[in-house]
């Protein structure tokens, strides 16, 4: 055999073998999780899903089931992109808490300290079909209150038709001119306006556009390369189709994201800190691992442990089980009840979810695109994943 033929055979053999690095980076799979979700695909309750389970050190499992496009029978992919909607809120809160750590923002400062347009904001004391009585609130809304949905701000301002209708500076003016629905600090009222106001504070204090701050300080350093407000053409090719129940038979029907303006890649759409992000299971897993690690990831500190504890423990008092941009596992039972260090997370409008179980040291990420599930089995889908994940890894 000639030297050339020997070299060709050796080169071909080496090319065909997987490298040690590639075998180590192959994402692990858990058949029990797929088995738990597959029946919902088969009975047309679930189009498809990507699930991820991790601890603070590594990804334990990442699985796909069903389809990213039911009509075209395109299988769900691990790298599929999803609109994560309100899962954007904890990420925005994380960005703001970076500024709190740096001493540039105080949670108990009035919002008007950073956004002067909020000076003189009024409270709707009485409302009627043809009149509204305004009065001065007991105190100006605070940064803590906008992050914990206790500011009295409404869900959206009257002029917002979509969550991406305006720039943050424009949206903030609208919120400032909108009368509060309740006295600050007295009622829990889930509010995109509040979290968007926090995003505007990030913009003003940091001196850079909110989305650039999030990219520079959080997404890119963590390696969240697929987390964006404006998916690229390549990312849109990986975007899972959205589905909703339709008709009397509750059939699974393809739909669009009604809260957003199309085309999705158009950067004239405003970023919505409260609900505008797209992401992947892997990216969300990175973010959650940093939080579970007390604000650090791969040796880099993003937040202080104190900031993480404040965000992820109950801040809405006895009003609701909510922290600062995060849902928590319980509300306080009384004014002297200490804020618990307990499981926390957040869901999104199209049924996505992330959850950090601090007692088990376990992260679960559930990525789907469902504006409601059809049929009686709908409420069982996500719990089936959670139960399978806890059984496999929660020991």
Calculate the mean pLDDT score and round it: 90
The CATH topology of the largest domain comes to: Beta-lactamase
CATH architectural label of the largest domain: 3-Layer(aba) Sandwich
CATH homologous superfamily assignment of the largest domain: DD-peptidase/beta-lactamase superfamily
Q: C-alpha Rg, in Å?
A: 23 Å
**Main sheet record:** 7 strands, antiparallel
> How many domains make up the coordinates?
2
Strand content: 15-25%
Give the termini distance in whole angstroms. Answer: 58 Å
Helix content: 25-40%
> Could you give the order of the helices and strands?
HHHEEEEHEEHHHHHEEEHEEHEEEEH
Determine the structural class based on helices, strands and strand pairing: alpha+beta
Quick tags:
395 residues, Beta-lactamase, Methane Monooxygenase Hydroxylase, Chain G, domain 1, 2 domains, seven-stranded antiparallel β-sheet, two-stranded antiparallel ribbon, globular, disordered N terminus
Walk me through this protein's architecture:
Strand 13 and strand 14 form a beta hairpin. The N terminus is likely disordered. The strands form 5 sheets. The protein has a 7-stranded antiparallel sheet with strand order 3-2-1-15-14-13-12, sandwiched between helices. Strands 4-9 form a two-stranded antiparallel sheet. It has a two-stranded antiparallel sheet with strand order 5-6. The chain folds into 2 domains: 246 residues, DD-peptidase/beta-lactamase superfamily (Beta-lactamase); 103 residues, Methane Monooxygenase Hydroxylase, Chain G, domain 1 (Up-down Bundle), CATH 1.20.58. The radius of gyration is 23 Å and the shape is globular. The protein is built from 12 helices and 15 strands. Helix 6 crosses helix 7. It has 395 residues and is of the alpha+beta class.
């Amino acid at each position: 055999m000639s030297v050339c033929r020997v070299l060709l055979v050796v080169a071909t053999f080496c090319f065909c073998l997987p490298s040690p690095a590639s075998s180590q980076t192959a994402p692990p799979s858990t058949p029990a999780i797929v088995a738990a979700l597959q029946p919902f695909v088969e009975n047309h309750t679930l189009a498809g899903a990507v699930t991820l389970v991790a601890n603070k050190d590594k990804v334990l499992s990442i699985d796909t089931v069903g389809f990213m496009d039911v009509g075209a029978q395109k299988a769900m992919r691990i790298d599929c992109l999803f609109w994560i909607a309100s899962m954007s809120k904890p990420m925005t809160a994380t960005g703001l808490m970076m500024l709190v750590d740096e001493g540039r923002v105080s949670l108990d400062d009035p919002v008007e300290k950073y956004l002067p347009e909020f000076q003189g904001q009024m409270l709707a004391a009485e409302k009627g079909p043809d009149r509204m009585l305004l009065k001065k609130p007991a105190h100006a809304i605070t940064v803590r209150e906008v992050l914990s949905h206790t500011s009295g701000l409404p869900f959206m301002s009257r002029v917002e038709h979509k969550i991406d209708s305006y720039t943050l500076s424009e949206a903030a003016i609208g919120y400032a001119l909108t009368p509060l629905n309740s006295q600050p600090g007295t009622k829990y009222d889930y509010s995109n306006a509040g979290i968007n106001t926090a995003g505007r504070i990030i913009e003003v204090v940091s001196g850079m556009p909110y989305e650039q701050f999030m990219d520079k300080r959080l997404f890119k350093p963590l390696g969240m390369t697929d987390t964006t407000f404006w998916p690229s053409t390549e990312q849109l090719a990986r975007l899972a189709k959205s589905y909703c129940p339709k008709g009397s038979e509750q059939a699974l029907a393809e739909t669009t994201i009604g809260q957003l303006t199309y085309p999705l890649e158009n950067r004239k759409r405003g970023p919505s800190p409260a609900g505008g992000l797209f992401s992947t299971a892997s990216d969300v897993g990175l973010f959650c691992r940093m939080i579970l690690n007390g604000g650090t990831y791969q040796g880099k500190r993003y937040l202080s442990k104190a900031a993480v504890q404040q965000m992820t423990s109950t801040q809405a008092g006895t009003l609701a089980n909510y922290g600062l941009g995060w849902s928590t596992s319980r509300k306080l039972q009384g004014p002297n009840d200490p804020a618990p260090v307990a499981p926390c997370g957040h869901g999104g409008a199209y049924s996505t979810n992330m959850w950090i179980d601090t007692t088990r040291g376990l992260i679960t990420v559930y990525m789907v695109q469902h504006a409601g599930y059809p049929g009686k089995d709908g409420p069982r889908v996500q719990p089936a994943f959670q139960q399978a994940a806890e059984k496999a890894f929660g020991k």
